[in-house]
Protein backbone atom coordinates (compact mmCIF):
# COMPACT_ATOMS: atom_id res chain seq x y z
CA UNK A 1 0.00 0.00 0.00
CA UNK A 2 2.88 2.35 0.81
CA UNK A 3 4.35 1.80 -2.64
CA UNK A 4 1.04 2.81 -4.22
CA UNK A 5 0.99 6.03 -2.23
CA UNK A 6 4.58 6.78 -3.18
CA UNK A 7 3.55 6.32 -6.81
CA UNK A 8 0.93 9.00 -6.39
CA UNK A 9 3.62 11.38 -5.16
CA UNK A 10 5.58 10.70 -8.34
CA UNK A 11 2.41 11.48 -10.29
CA UNK A 12 2.09 14.82 -8.53
CA UNK A 13 5.72 15.68 -9.18
CA UNK A 14 5.31 14.99 -12.90
CA UNK A 15 2.02 16.91 -12.94
CA UNK A 16 3.37 20.05 -11.34
CA UNK A 17 6.56 19.98 -13.38
CA UNK A 18 4.38 20.06 -16.46
CA UNK A 19 2.25 22.90 -15.08
CA UNK A 20 5.27 24.99 -14.18
CA UNK A 21 6.80 24.44 -17.59
CA UNK A 22 3.58 25.85 -19.03
CA UNK A 23 3.57 28.88 -16.75
CA UNK A 24 1.77 27.51 -13.71
CA UNK A 25 1.68 29.85 -10.69
CA UNK A 26 3.13 27.63 -7.96
CA UNK A 27 5.63 24.83 -7.53
CA UNK A 28 4.62 22.41 -4.77
CA UNK A 29 6.62 19.61 -6.31
CA UNK A 30 9.68 21.72 -6.96
CA UNK A 31 10.15 23.24 -10.39
CA UNK A 32 11.69 26.71 -10.51
CA UNK A 33 12.78 28.63 -13.61
CA UNK A 34 16.51 29.28 -13.62
CA UNK A 35 15.89 32.96 -14.23
CA UNK A 36 14.42 33.29 -10.73
CA UNK A 37 17.51 31.90 -9.00
CA UNK A 38 20.17 34.20 -7.61
CA UNK A 39 23.55 33.73 -9.25
CA UNK A 40 25.26 31.80 -6.45
CA UNK A 41 22.35 29.45 -5.84
CA UNK A 42 21.94 28.83 -9.56
CA UNK A 43 25.62 27.93 -9.91
CA UNK A 44 25.40 25.40 -7.09
CA UNK A 45 22.09 23.92 -8.23
CA UNK A 46 23.21 23.56 -11.83
CA UNK A 47 25.96 21.14 -10.83
CA UNK A 48 23.40 18.59 -9.61
CA UNK A 49 20.30 19.37 -11.63
CA UNK A 50 19.14 22.28 -13.77
CA UNK A 51 16.05 23.13 -11.76
CA UNK A 52 14.02 24.39 -14.68
CA UNK A 53 14.25 20.84 -16.06
CA UNK A 54 13.89 18.86 -12.85
CA UNK A 55 11.26 16.53 -11.43
CA UNK A 56 11.64 16.45 -7.65
CA UNK A 57 10.02 13.71 -5.59
CA UNK A 58 9.71 13.26 -1.83
CA UNK A 59 10.04 9.56 -0.97
CA UNK A 60 8.31 8.80 2.32
CA UNK A 61 10.35 5.62 2.76
CA UNK A 62 13.83 5.30 1.35
CA UNK A 63 16.16 2.39 0.82
CA UNK A 64 18.99 4.54 2.15
CA UNK A 65 18.06 4.47 5.83
CA UNK A 66 14.29 4.02 6.06
CA UNK A 67 13.60 7.66 6.95
CA UNK A 68 13.01 9.00 3.48
CA UNK A 69 14.71 10.95 0.73
CA UNK A 70 14.36 13.73 -1.81
CA UNK A 71 15.09 12.53 -5.32
CA UNK A 72 15.82 14.68 -8.38
CA UNK A 73 15.21 13.44 -11.94
CA UNK A 74 15.81 15.10 -15.27
CA UNK A 75 12.70 16.78 -16.65
CA UNK A 76 12.49 14.33 -19.57
CA UNK A 77 13.26 11.19 -17.49
CA UNK A 78 11.40 8.11 -18.71
CA UNK A 79 11.54 4.45 -17.76
CA UNK A 80 14.13 3.00 -15.37
CA UNK A 81 16.29 6.11 -15.03
CA UNK A 82 18.69 6.92 -12.22
CA UNK A 83 18.18 10.20 -10.37
CA UNK A 84 20.61 13.02 -11.02
CA UNK A 85 20.68 13.93 -7.32
CA UNK A 86 19.48 12.50 -3.99
CA UNK A 87 19.24 14.04 -0.52
CA UNK A 88 19.20 11.21 2.03
CA UNK A 89 20.89 10.08 5.25
CA UNK A 90 20.80 10.55 8.99
CA UNK A 91 22.04 14.15 8.93
CA UNK A 92 19.09 15.24 6.77
CA UNK A 93 16.55 14.66 9.59
CA UNK A 94 14.06 13.52 6.96
CA UNK A 95 11.32 11.42 8.55
CA UNK A 96 8.58 10.20 6.20
CA UNK A 97 8.64 13.34 4.02
CA UNK A 98 5.36 13.90 2.17
CA UNK A 99 5.26 17.42 0.72
CA UNK A 100 8.12 19.27 -0.94
CA UNK A 101 8.51 22.73 -2.42
CA UNK A 102 11.26 25.14 -3.48
CA UNK A 103 11.66 28.86 -2.94
CA UNK A 104 12.88 31.27 -5.60
CA UNK A 105 16.51 30.64 -4.63
CA UNK A 106 16.22 26.88 -5.13
CA UNK A 107 16.10 26.16 -1.39
CA UNK A 108 14.13 22.93 -0.77
CA UNK A 109 11.48 22.52 1.95
CA UNK A 110 10.27 19.08 3.11
CA UNK A 111 7.26 18.28 5.32
CA UNK A 112 8.13 15.39 7.63
CA UNK A 113 4.93 13.53 8.51
CA UNK A 114 6.32 11.43 11.38
CA UNK A 115 8.50 14.00 13.14
CA UNK A 116 6.07 16.96 12.87
CA UNK A 117 8.70 19.14 11.28
CA UNK A 118 9.66 21.13 8.20
CA UNK A 119 13.29 20.76 7.17
CA UNK A 120 14.94 23.18 4.76
CA UNK A 121 17.95 22.44 2.52
CA UNK A 122 20.33 24.76 0.71
CA UNK A 123 20.11 25.06 -3.07
CA UNK A 124 22.18 22.30 -4.62
CA UNK A 125 22.26 20.20 -1.42
CA UNK A 126 23.12 16.57 -2.10
CA UNK A 127 23.69 13.35 -0.19
CA UNK A 128 23.63 13.32 3.60
CA UNK A 129 23.20 17.09 3.98
CA UNK A 130 21.97 18.64 7.22
CA UNK A 131 19.09 21.11 6.94
CA UNK A 132 19.96 24.80 7.12
CA UNK A 133 16.72 25.50 9.00
CA UNK A 134 14.11 23.41 10.81
CA UNK A 135 10.60 24.37 11.92
CA UNK A 136 9.63 22.09 14.83
CA UNK A 137 8.38 22.24 18.40
CA UNK A 138 5.30 22.75 20.53
CA UNK A 139 4.65 26.32 19.34
CA UNK A 140 4.53 25.45 15.65
CA UNK A 141 1.13 23.74 15.56
CA UNK A 142 2.55 21.06 13.26
CA UNK A 143 0.99 17.60 13.50
CA UNK A 144 1.50 15.15 10.66
CA UNK A 145 2.35 17.85 8.09
CA UNK A 146 1.63 16.65 4.56
CA UNK A 147 1.21 19.25 1.82
CA UNK A 148 3.31 22.42 1.75
CA UNK A 149 3.49 25.39 -0.61
CA UNK A 150 5.16 28.80 -0.66
CA UNK A 151 3.36 31.99 -1.63
CA UNK A 152 4.86 34.87 -3.61
CA UNK A 153 6.04 36.58 -0.42
CA UNK A 154 7.88 33.48 0.78
CA UNK A 155 5.33 32.54 3.45
CA UNK A 156 5.05 28.79 3.97
CA UNK A 157 1.60 27.17 4.10
CA UNK A 158 1.29 23.69 5.62
CA UNK A 159 -1.62 21.21 5.64
CA UNK A 160 -1.63 19.35 8.97
CA UNK A 161 -3.29 15.99 8.43
CA UNK A 162 -3.95 15.17 12.11
CA UNK A 163 -4.77 18.69 13.36
CA UNK A 164 -7.30 19.41 10.60
CA UNK A 165 -5.57 22.73 10.13
CA UNK A 166 -3.54 24.93 7.79
CA UNK A 167 -0.65 26.74 9.46
CA UNK A 168 1.16 29.66 7.82
CA UNK A 169 4.71 30.73 8.70
CA UNK A 170 6.68 33.87 7.93
CA UNK A 171 9.37 33.71 5.26
CA UNK A 172 12.66 32.18 6.47
CA UNK A 173 11.05 30.88 9.70
CA UNK A 174 13.27 28.69 11.86
CA UNK A 175 13.00 26.81 15.14
CA UNK A 176 10.09 26.45 17.55
CA UNK A 177 8.12 29.36 16.13
CA UNK A 178 4.39 30.08 16.16
CA UNK A 179 2.53 30.40 12.84
CA UNK A 180 1.54 33.91 11.78
CA UNK A 181 -1.99 32.59 11.25
CA UNK A 182 -3.89 29.31 11.41
CA UNK A 183 -6.99 28.09 9.60
CA UNK A 184 -8.86 25.60 11.81
CA UNK A 185 -12.25 24.97 13.39
CA UNK A 186 -15.60 23.41 12.56
CA UNK A 187 -16.53 26.03 9.95
CA UNK A 188 -13.42 25.30 7.87
CA UNK A 189 -14.73 21.86 6.81
CA UNK A 190 -11.14 20.59 7.07
CA UNK A 191 -10.91 16.84 7.64
CA UNK A 192 -7.50 15.18 7.39
CA UNK A 193 -6.15 17.64 4.81
CA UNK A 194 -3.38 16.29 2.62
CA UNK A 195 -2.40 18.42 -0.37
CA UNK A 196 -2.24 22.21 -0.67
CA UNK A 197 -1.78 24.58 -3.61
CA UNK A 198 -2.32 28.22 -4.55
CA UNK A 199 -3.88 29.77 -7.62
CA UNK A 200 -2.69 32.94 -9.36
CA UNK A 201 -4.57 35.06 -6.78
CA UNK A 202 -3.07 33.11 -3.85
CA UNK A 203 -6.40 31.48 -2.99
CA UNK A 204 -5.74 28.31 -1.00
CA UNK A 205 -6.79 24.89 -2.36
CA UNK A 206 -6.78 21.93 0.03
CA UNK A 207 -7.32 18.31 -1.03
CA UNK A 208 -8.78 15.95 1.56
CA UNK A 209 -10.32 12.57 0.90
CA UNK A 210 -13.50 13.06 -1.11
CA UNK A 211 -13.44 16.85 -1.24
CA UNK A 212 -11.45 19.96 -2.09
CA UNK A 213 -11.80 23.08 0.07
CA UNK A 214 -10.92 26.50 -1.38
CA UNK A 215 -10.16 29.38 1.00
CA UNK A 216 -9.57 33.07 0.43
CA UNK A 217 -5.92 34.09 0.27
CA UNK A 218 -6.16 35.92 3.63
CA UNK A 219 -8.27 33.31 5.45
CA UNK A 220 -7.50 32.71 9.12
CA UNK A 221 -9.09 31.26 12.21
CA UNK A 222 -12.38 29.39 11.96
CA UNK A 223 -13.02 30.61 8.41
CA UNK A 224 -15.48 28.88 6.11
CA UNK A 225 -14.16 27.95 2.66
CA UNK A 226 -15.16 30.18 -0.24
CA UNK A 227 -16.32 27.05 -2.04
CA UNK A 228 -16.12 23.26 -1.85
CA UNK A 229 -15.83 20.61 -4.54
CA UNK A 230 -17.55 17.56 -3.11
CA UNK A 231 -20.16 14.94 -3.99
CA UNK A 232 -20.66 11.75 -6.00
CA UNK A 233 -20.24 13.44 -9.38
CA UNK A 234 -16.71 14.58 -8.48
CA UNK A 235 -15.61 10.91 -8.36
CA UNK A 236 -13.05 11.84 -5.71
CA UNK A 237 -11.96 8.85 -3.66
CA UNK A 238 -8.80 9.81 -1.78
CA UNK A 239 -7.64 13.19 -3.08
CA UNK A 240 -4.00 13.82 -2.20
CA UNK A 241 -1.73 15.71 -4.58
CA UNK A 242 -3.15 18.97 -5.93
CA UNK A 243 -2.02 21.75 -8.26
CA UNK A 244 -3.66 24.71 -10.03
CA UNK A 245 -2.51 25.95 -13.43
CA UNK A 246 -2.36 29.52 -14.72
CA UNK A 247 -5.87 29.29 -16.18
CA UNK A 248 -7.38 28.07 -12.91
CA UNK A 249 -7.83 24.39 -13.74
CA UNK A 250 -7.38 22.20 -10.65
CA UNK A 251 -5.47 18.92 -10.99
CA UNK A 252 -5.89 16.24 -8.33
CA UNK A 253 -3.90 13.01 -7.90
CA UNK A 254 -6.43 10.60 -6.43
CA UNK A 255 -4.86 7.72 -4.55
CA UNK A 256 -8.19 6.01 -3.94
CA UNK A 257 -9.20 5.78 -7.61
CA UNK A 258 -5.73 5.87 -9.22
CA UNK A 259 -6.79 8.75 -11.46
CA UNK A 260 -5.72 12.26 -12.30
CA UNK A 261 -8.86 14.40 -12.03
CA UNK A 262 -9.09 17.84 -13.63
CA UNK A 263 -11.72 20.36 -12.51
CA UNK A 264 -12.79 23.49 -14.35
CA UNK A 265 -11.89 26.97 -13.04
CA UNK A 266 -14.36 28.06 -10.34
CA UNK A 267 -15.71 24.49 -10.04
CA UNK A 268 -17.98 24.21 -7.02
CA UNK A 269 -20.24 21.68 -5.33
CA UNK A 270 -21.06 18.29 -6.81
CA UNK A 271 -19.40 18.92 -10.16
CA UNK A 272 -17.84 16.27 -12.36
CA UNK A 273 -14.24 16.69 -13.52
CA UNK A 274 -13.81 18.05 -17.04
CA UNK A 275 -11.45 15.18 -17.72
CA UNK A 276 -9.77 12.20 -16.07
CA UNK A 277 -6.57 10.37 -16.90
CA UNK A 278 -5.79 6.81 -15.88
CA UNK A 279 -3.09 6.07 -18.42
CA UNK A 280 -0.08 4.53 -16.75
CA UNK A 281 -1.57 4.90 -13.26
Task: Describe the 3D structure.
Helices cover 10% and strands 33% of the residues. The chain is built from two helices and 19 strands. It is globular, with a radius of gyration of 17 Å. Residues 1-48 have low confidence and may be disordered.
How is the secondary structure organized here?
Elements (H helix, E strand, L loop, with lengths): L1 H20 L17 H8 L7 E6 L9 E6 L10 E4 L8 E6 L5 E5 L4 E5 L11 E4 L8 E6 L5 E5 L4 E5 L11 E4 L10 E4 L5 E5 L2 E5 L11 E4 L8 E6 L5 E5 L4 E5 L11 E3 L4
Antiparallel strand pairs: 1-2, 2-3, 4-5, 5-6, 6-7, 8-9, 9-10, 10-11, 12-13, 13-14, 14-15, 16-17, 17-18, 18-19
Q: State the end-to-end distance.
A: 14 Å
Structural class: mainly beta
Strand content: 25-35%
**H-E string:** HHEEEEEEEEEEEEEEEEEEE
Runs in which pLDDT lies below 50 for 5 or more consecutive residues are: 1-48
Largest beta sheet: strand ordering: 4-5-6-7
Which descriptor suits the 3D outline?
globular
Amino acid sequence: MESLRSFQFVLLAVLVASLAACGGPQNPAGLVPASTLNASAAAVAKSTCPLQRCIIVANAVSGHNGTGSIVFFARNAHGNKSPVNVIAGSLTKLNHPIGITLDSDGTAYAANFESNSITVYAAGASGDSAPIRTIAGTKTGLLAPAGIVLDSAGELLVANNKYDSITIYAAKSNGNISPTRTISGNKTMLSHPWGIALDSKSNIYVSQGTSIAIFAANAKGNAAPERMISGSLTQLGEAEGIAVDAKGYTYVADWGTATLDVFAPEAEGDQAPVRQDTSGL
